[in-house]
Amino acid sequence: APATGPVGTLLTERPPVAATSGPMIAIDGVSKWYGDFQVLTNCTTSVTKGEVVVVCGPSGSGKSTLIKCVNALEPFQKGQITVDGTQIANKKTNLPKLRSRVGMVFQHFELFPHLSITDNLSLAQRKVLGRSKDEAQAKGLALLERVGLKAHAHKFPGQLSGGQQQRVAIARALAMNPIVMLFDEPTSALDPEMVGEVLDVMVELAREGMTMMVVTHEMGFARKVANRVIFMDKGEIVEDAQKEEFFGSPRSERAQTFLSRIL
Ligand code: ADP
Ligand code: MG
């Protein structure tokens, strides 16, 4: 879907890192070990521009590790990952630059507790993108408004609820004009009554055409906006299917068992 809403408009301001017609994220035969323990085994998948891919699977199956590899927060020993055509394991790749284009939202919001919401939103824009204070603040405020938190700009993270903090974390990631957004269980640390307000922001982003890779067990979200669902178990991608196919008739027994427990 083309970017239409105000967030979408903001997102398309910067030109892509490398203009390619290939997938936005390509994960090709990735294996990773922690010492002797193999955490990822020959993982291969891709995310096309504008696609929303949900990653699910039991705890310890390697979902967080895989998503961290995409953002080069974790090294891997075999295979290749490219983001918008740029190989992340290539020594010549400017990782800080690449990372600045890949928005990441974690389970724990990881806002800077000693900085106001405004400053949380401005810091990386100024340090990494070199935006002026005024420009960064204006951009931050516009995004805060989009996530319904403009009135809280002057506050500190500790004065906001978990759901509000997570919406600030999403706004902070969007302020960098990412070409792709990665989410790692963004709602699993929230009180149940706050899950909806965070998912709403994510649904809106998806509708505006953002490319997203989302680790979540919120199957309602997956049913609503995912294009594809990836199911992982013991470090392997066991299932990688269109949403309808995944929910309708998962091929593997492991995915069937997982779905029957969670739905
Ligand atoms: P998930 O996100 O699906 O719960 P993770 O990617 O966090 O899974 O972890 C996958 C496996 O790797 C787990 O068995 C976990 O204990 C192990 N693991 C994760 N991080 C490390 C680490 N830094 N060192 C060693 N083992 C790790
Ligand atoms: Mg995890």
From TrEMBL:
Main localization of the protein described in the UniProt heading: membrane
Domain ABC transporter: 25-259
Molecular functions per Gene Ontology: ABC-type amino acid transporter activity; ATP binding; ATP hydrolysis activity
Cited SUPFAM superfamilies: P-loop containing nucleoside triphosphate hydrolases
Gene Ontology, cellular component aspect: plasma membrane
PROSITE patterns the UniProt entry points to: ABC_TRANSPORTER_1, ABC_TRANSPORTER_2
Record's keyword annotation contains Transmembrane: no
Gene3D superfamilies attached to this UniProt entry: P-loop containing nucleotide triphosphate hydrolases (3.40.50.300)
UniProt cross-references to Pfam families, sorted A to Z: ABC_tran
Subcellular location: Cell membrane
Topology relative to the membrane: Peripheral membrane protein
CDD domains: ABC_HisP_GlnQ
Superkingdom of source: Bacteria
Signal peptide extent: none
Alphabetically ordered keywords of this record: Amino-acid transport, ATP-binding, Cell membrane, Membrane, Nucleotide-binding, Transport
Family assignment from sequence similarity: Belongs to the ABC transporter superfamily.
Record-given protein name: Amino acid ABC transporter ATP-binding protein
Origin species: Methylobacterium aquaticum
